[in-house]
Amino acid sequence: MIKFLFNNTKSIFLGLVLFSFMSVLAHPMPNSIIALNVHSKSIRCELQLPLKELQFAVPFDVTKNTNDLLKNHEQDLSKYILSHFTITGNNGKKWNMEIAKMKISRSEQEATGKYEELIIYLTINPKSIQNVRKFTINYDAIIHQVVTHRILVTIKQDWENGQIGENNSEIGIISIDLNTNTVLPFKVNLAKGSSWKGFKSMVSLGMKHISEGTDHLLFLLVLLLSAPLVTDGKKWIGSGGTKYSLIRILKIATAFTIGHSITLIMGSFGLINANAKLVELFIALSILFTAVHAIKPIFANKEIYIASVFGLLHGLAFATILTDLNLETNKLVLSLLGFNIGIELMQLFVILLVMPWLLLLSSYKVYNWVRIIGALLAGIISISWLLERYTEKSNFISIYLQNSAQYSIWIVFILACFTILYISTRKVLKK
């Protein structure tokens, strides 16, 4: 009996050990990703290779001293990738492939958690004029040693099909044939796109950039706070009426549009190369100045000039979005037009959404409190952004704004409800 229990206990123990070992082996590994940016005559590729899996395929340990990995082994890694990654066209000829740069980065996938990866940027060009929307990928990096490894093929940017790099779309997985132990070629056959699709996507991007760009929205809203008011040069003395307010809004919005359009065009064509951090700092500063002006006029009757100058700064921030797309000239021109239209449509929508309530309230003394409270909040927010962008460290205000930006529509709802209730109450009291 004792012997029976001992043998069974031993079997259970060994079973548990084996199960634990298999669980470790079965732990999901990060995927490699081939992200393709498809252009008219070439392809830019971004390879993402998890370091822990890469160490099984290269003759050195890439998980040790990752900071010195590229310094010591960049040439070896380049040779390895170029020997395990080729693209061929419809005529069966290999396309030219060059590695532009490499970097080590931290990433995270839902199933695997955080990990380090090697990112390799490549430029790929056909040797002759060919259809860059149809080609075959031959790729077996890592998977030739780790057969369970997964390689996802994604499209990061395809302007002609309206995809502009916001979210990768997966088009397939490179797999291995276990019967022959060979990695199967992966055929890419992208749908034919059009300039219209690309143009529409840029209009949508422009609208999205303003709707999600909290700093640009806040700048616009603070400008609107003082738009209905008349000044004696030292203080705001009351509403100028509907006609006066609408003309001022039109002039200020037009000046801002002209300003940001100039630098957007120049920045997109590489005529201006501004420091991104400095631009973001000045944008936060522009909100602070405008907030102070909404409390006490510091550039009375010169709002048009200020809006155009600050528009120049905001345009530089807009331009970085287009330059990152690396578009050909004809597509860049269409993109500039579409992106600018999207920006103006969203700005117009915000003005139409907010301005009626400000116009209605501006005739009452309570508007002084609305203006001052709104300007003070904008000032506090701009200071938090200045600190964040200068120190490159988030603070509790900037974190809160980032997490709650999607609920900004509630500010308009509250403003509308307050306006209706206040005016209704005033009418009842008069009766």
UniProtKB/TrEMBL annotation:
Q: Which UniProt keywords apply?
A: Membrane, Transmembrane, Transmembrane helix
Pfam families in UniProt: HupE_UreJ_2
- Membrane: is it a keyword of this entry? yes
Q: List membrane-spanning regions.
A: 249-272, 278-295, 304-322, 334-359, 366-387, 407-425
User: Signal sequence: where?
Assistant: none
Has UniProt tagged this entry with the keyword Transmembrane helix? yes
Can you say what this protein is called? HupE/UreJ family protein
Which species? Flavobacterium restrictum
In the record, what lineage is assigned to the organism producing the protein?
Bacteria, Pseudomonadati, Bacteroidota, Flavobacteriia, Flavobacteriales
